[in-house]
């Protein structure tokens, strides 16, 4: 099963200047490696058949004839192979020479794409030897012609320019698209990509999910960083996979050095890179998610916008000629997957500086949202239920930051602990100690007397610990918060998070409700990360009273088992009702949420990726990982709960969007509350 992936390879051969036999053999060797690696497409550098730095030798007819023969040898070698090859070679046409990308598949020359923008500045002087591919963009070369199948190749007669190359007739034009199964790719060459409006800006809206760039970009101090950013950014702007492959060792070092850079990106994220400045050949594989790109393009209604001349992208796409090259390689992605699969996609892990900036930014978004809401309604007090758990802790941190922004005294924050029938000493002490450390007003109101009276009023047996037993406590707590907010002219700050909303793990009109939900777009794994980060970076001062510092309290809260504490504690007074024992690990659910909501993946694909992501040693929960059976169990639970609990998300309070995923029914997510889950569960049942 391909799961919507398309395997590509960027191959950097070791070359010799003008030694086409050596170069073609090196290319053939790497084609074999690409085929062995089950790649559907392999890309080589610009003018890799001759070497980019031949200079005035490009004026030698002997070299050009030998280059064509070398391409023919490469084409013959591809017979019977699944991999499609893109190589760089000089191509003559009507007395002019073009710097071209030649597309080869199963012995056939499927098309030739000439370079449009020829640099003639600094160390470059391509205009001295080559003509521009813009020669083929005149109106007379577009929107005409018919397809011809001559038994060897399939080309469009009269569309752009038809040439005979390596003994085969094919199209020569920048306006060519090539399809391999469900994947279409287009080509731009080196300098094309550095221009204000690269060809890929038209190729992508016209159907190319993958952009190929064959390049010969020399190395100058600091240039690689900029080049890498360009590749990443262009893949993001075009919502595409981008395969960049540049000339390497063996090019002339008379005035310049070529590092052999290979970069493969997808929608603004790097998938794979090679090591530059290697003296030997290299090949870099990556699996591009074509299905994900399709979903993202479908969601972005601005993707198929307007061309610079005012032509709509749909109209402009008529300029392009598409060639079907056959099926992709029969790749077994289950045995080897050449792409990172992040088990904790919501977490800002990586570079410590970037991680710190991400955490500050998230807390700033939350606190600014709350501050703006309070200022708008003229409110100077906030009311929170503080349980000693993760969610209320983050909400308290955010509220304190909002008060600081507004210049309000933190005593205007009224934190209320509301011990219930399952409250433990650990969580209660953490709640009260944290409020003291942050300088907020602390109150304690037990819900037990009111709940016991309520049980009597409705005739509920308190020994029956069912949903009524639990939800009565949650609703009583919410009533207390709302009524005190009325007394104090304050605003109830919600503590519920994104993960709980996805699973419906909240009491309707209980902890489900607030006046502003600061955590509504923050998943549980990110909350744990933010609280831990705040302990080490924000609340670092020692306690003035001699007790525990805020940092110590926060770390203990992070390490406390997640629980609503609605059931009595065990015989040792410790938490007995552990949420993750009941509904599954939050790190799995957050992985499911991210991939379902952001990428629209099917259940089987999410299952496949989860099995890959949560292999041994990749868990946050202190376990070594999760086996396939465990992942499938909780994935089924996730779908059942996600579909059945939509009614809670349909009427959720306001709250700021933090992560790429939001369930706000006003801005992000509109799902019918009575949608059926059977289609999704049926697919999972087939995996048993």
Descriptive labels:
seven-stranded mixed sheet, six-stranded mixed sheet, Rossmann fold, alpha/beta, Nitrilase/N-carbamoyl-D-aminoacid amidohydrolase, 688 residues, single chain
* CATH fold call of the largest domain: Rossmann fold
Mean pLDDT rating: 90
Number of continuous helical runs: 20
- The secondary-structure class comes to alpha/beta
Our estimate of the beta-strand percent is 15-25%
CATH class group of the largest domain: Alpha Beta
Topology, element by element:
Blueprint: E1 5-12, H1 20-36, E2 41-43, H2 61-77, E3 84-93, E4 96-105, E5 108-114, E6 146-149, E7 154-157, E8 161-165, E9 168-172, E10 176-180, E11 183-189, H3 200-203, E12 210-215, H4 223-237, E13 241-246, E14 262-266, E15 269-273, E16 282-289, H5 290-299, H6 313-316, E17 321-324, H7 352-377, E18 382-385, H8 390-406, E19 413-417, H9 425-438, E20 441-444, H10 448-458, H11 467-488, E21 491-494, H12 498-503, E22 516-517, H13 524-537, H14 550-558, H15 579-583, H16 586-599, H17 603-613, H18 628-644, H19 646-649, H20 678-685
Parallel strand pairs: 1-2, 2-3, 10-17, 11-12, 12-13, 18-19, 18-21, 19-20, 21-22
Antiparallel strand pairs: 1-16, 3-4, 4-5, 6-7, 8-9, 10-11, 13-14, 14-15
Description:
- With 688 residues, the protein is of the alpha/beta class.
- It folds into two domains: 5-324, Carbon-nitrogen hydrolase (Nitrilase/N-carbamoyl-D-aminoacid amidohydrolase), CATH 3.60.110.10; 352-685, Rossmann fold.
- The protein contains 20 helices and 22 strands.
- Helix 9 packs antiparallel against helix 14 and helix 17 packs across helix 18.
- The radius of gyration is 31 Å and the shape is elongated.
- The two termini are 16 Å apart.
- Residues 140-144 have low confidence and may be disordered.
């Amino acid at each position: 099963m391909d799961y919507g992936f398309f395997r590509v390879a960027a191959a950097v051969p070791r070359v010799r200047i003008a030694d086409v036999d050596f170069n073609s053999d090196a290319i053939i060797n790497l084609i074999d490696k690409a085929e062995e690696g089950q790649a559907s497409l392999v890309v080589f550098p610009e003018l890799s058949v001759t070497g980019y730095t031949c200079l005035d030798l490009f004026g030698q007819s002997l070299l050009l004839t030998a280059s064509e023969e070398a391409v023919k040898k490469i084409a013959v070698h591809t017979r019977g192979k699944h991999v499609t090859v893109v190589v760089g070679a000089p191509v003559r046409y009507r007395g002019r020479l073009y710097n071209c990308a030649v597309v080869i598949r199963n012995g056939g020359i499927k098309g030739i794409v000439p370079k449009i923008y020829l640099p003639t500045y600094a160390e470059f002087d391509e205009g001295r030897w080559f003509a521009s591919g813009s020669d083929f963009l005149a109106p007379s070369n577009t929107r005409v012609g018919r397809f011809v199948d001559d038994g060897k190749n399939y080309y469009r007669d009269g569309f752009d320019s038809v040439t005979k190359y390596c003994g085969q007739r094919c199209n020569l034009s920048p306006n060519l698209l090539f399809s391999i199964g469900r994947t279409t790719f287009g080509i731009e060459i080196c300098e094309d990509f550095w221009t204000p409006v690269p060809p890929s800006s038209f190729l992508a809206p016209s159907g190319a999910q993958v952009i190929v760039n064959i390049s010969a970009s020399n190395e100058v101090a600091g240039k690689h960083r900029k080049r890498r950013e360009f590749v990443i950014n262009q893949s993001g702007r075009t919502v595409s996979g981008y395969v960049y492959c540049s000339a390497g060792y063996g090019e002339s070092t008379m005035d310049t050095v070529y590092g052999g850079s290979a970069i493969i990106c997808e929608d603004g994220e790097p998938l794979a890179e090679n090591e530059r400045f290697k003296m030997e050949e290299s090949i870099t594989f990556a699996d591009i998610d074509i299905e994900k790109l399709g979903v993202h393009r479908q969601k972005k209604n601005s993707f198929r916008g307007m061309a610079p001349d005012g032509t709509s992208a749909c109209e402009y796409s008529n300029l392009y000629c598409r060639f079907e090259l056959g099926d992709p390689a029969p790749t077994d992605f289950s045995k080897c997957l050449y792409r990172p699969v992040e088990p904790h996609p919501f977490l800002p892990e990586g570079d410590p500086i970037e991680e710190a900036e991400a955490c500050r930014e998230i807390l700033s978004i939350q606190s600014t949202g709350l501050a703006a809401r309070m200022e708008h309604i003229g409110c100077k007090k906030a009311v929170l239920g503080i349980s000693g758990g993760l969610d209320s802790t983050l909400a308290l941190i955010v509220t304190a930051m909002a008060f600081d922004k507004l210049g309000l005294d933190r005593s205007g924050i009224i934190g209320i602990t509301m011990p219930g029938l399952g409250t433990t000493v650990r969580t209660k002490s953490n709640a009260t100690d944290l409020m003291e450390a942050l300088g907020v007003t602390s109150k304690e109101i037990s819900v037990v007397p009111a709940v016991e009276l309520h049980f009597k009023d409705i005739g509920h047996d308190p020994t029956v610990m069912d949903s009524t037993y639990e939800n009565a406590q949650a609703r009583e707590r919410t009533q207390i918060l709302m009524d005190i907010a009325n007394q104090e002219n304050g605003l109830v700050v919600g503590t519920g998070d994104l993960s709980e909303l996805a699973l419906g793990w909240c009491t309707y009109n209980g902890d489900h409700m607030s006046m502003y939900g600061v955590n509504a777009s923050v998943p549980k794994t990110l909350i744990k990360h933010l609280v831990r980060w705040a302990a080490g970076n924000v609340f670092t001062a020692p306690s003035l009273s001699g007790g525990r510092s805020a940092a110590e309290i926060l770390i203990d809260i992070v390490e406390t088992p997640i629980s609503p504490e609605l059931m009595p504690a065990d015989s040792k007074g410790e938490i007995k009702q552990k949420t993750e024992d009941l509904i599954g690990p939050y790190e799995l659910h957050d992985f499911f949420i991210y991939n379902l909501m952001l990428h629209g993946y099917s259940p089987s694909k999410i299952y496949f990726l989860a099995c890959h992501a949560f292999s041994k040693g990749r868990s946050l929960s202190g376990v070594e990982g999760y086996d396939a059976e465990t992942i499938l169990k909780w994935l089924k639970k996730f779908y059942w709960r996600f579909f059945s609990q939509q009614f809670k998300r349909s009427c959720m309070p306001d709250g700021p969007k933090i992560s790429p995923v939001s369930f706000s029914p006003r801005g992000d997510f509109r799902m019918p509350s009575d949608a059926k889950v059977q289609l999704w569960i049926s697919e999972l049942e087939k995996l048993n």
